[in-house]
Amino acid sequence: MKLFDVYPLFDVTIDHGKGCYVYDEKGQEYLDFYGGHAVISIGHSHPRYLQTMQEQAAKLCFYSNAVKNPLQVKLAEKLGKVSGYDDYQLFLINSGAEANENALKLASFYTGKKKVIAFSHAFHGRTSAAVNVTQNPKIQAPINSTFPVEFFELGDIDGIKASIAKGDVAAVIIEGISGVGGIHIPTTEFMQQLRKVTEENNVVLILDEIQSGYGRSGKFFAHQYTGIRPDIITVAKGIANGYPFAGVLISPKFTPVYGQLGTTFGGNHLGCALACTVLDVIQDEKLVENAAKQGEYLMQQLKSMSIPGLKELRGRGLMIGIEFDYPYKEVRNRLIYDQHVFTGAAGTNVLRILPPLCIGQKECDLFLERFEKSLKG
User: Fold this and answer.
1) Is the predicted pLDDT of residue 377 greater than 80, yes or no?
2) Could you tell me the residue ranges of all domains in the chain?
3) What is the pTM of this model?
4) How much is the pLDDT for 376?
5) Cα(114)–Cα(109) distance, rounded to whole angstroms?
6) Are 155 and 188 in contact (CB under 8 A)?
């Protein structure tokens, strides 16, 4: 059997990682300013993370949701306290797409409606409902068009108000900061107006914080810069530092019903233990504050650089987009193969900077030095 070939791959084989660095099978060190799609939050092979993995795996990795699991309760309490949403409810699953699937399903249950408002260039996943609210025909199969979706540009509050006024909208789903779309940040004014119109019309507001959450923006959730509280928040990526895990934070206005949602693997013992340790490390090492500090430093230094063809710098915390007026491909290739730095990308012209939250100024300066060299060819 061979692999189903859907991933264009760089000619690099990563063998192991430590902190903000990864190493190939030949021992070559790479500075990781990508974190595998913003997944690595507390750093590769963090000793406390490895200790938790070893201890919990030796006891129990998995049992089903048919029995009590105190680790789920512990995680919910920790996450509520750290995030500022201790009055919300937590449903645990395995991936970001699955989190958004369940969020959309809950919104439809709650309102009895099925139309969703989403945003141009957003990305919410590749599965049924999640991909239907992702405006990318290349990844949408005919079977995915199962409910009506209306897409708007960020900031088009008048269009959204007119759509909601028709009375058929179940939910609005929006990213705290767009990731795959190129690091676009909704304004505070727009987010507050969006919250107001959704509340007034009993429309569920879903904040997709899968990439922008867990401290990456310099606050625990990116939407917390705007002062709003959505009805549902979806999380994944950095929640368990590479272990497949995700969650849905659900407002107390939703009443759970047995069998309404469900999962086989979600909330498993090993995943819960790891997610608890990630939150402990984030708090103890002040990684949210560090993301804000290092992100500000990176933005200041990037703004002071002479970057040929720079169109715009965008970002918050350690979620930064560098947009060129030409395709990034050659620059990114030189970063990887010549300078040994991993970065992310969006579209054809945007480099995404998504390092682990534990980077220091040393790693920032090293990235800036190697990035400048990559621009010169």
Assistant:
1) no
2) 63-284, 286-319+351-377
3) 0.97
4) 87
5) 9
6) no
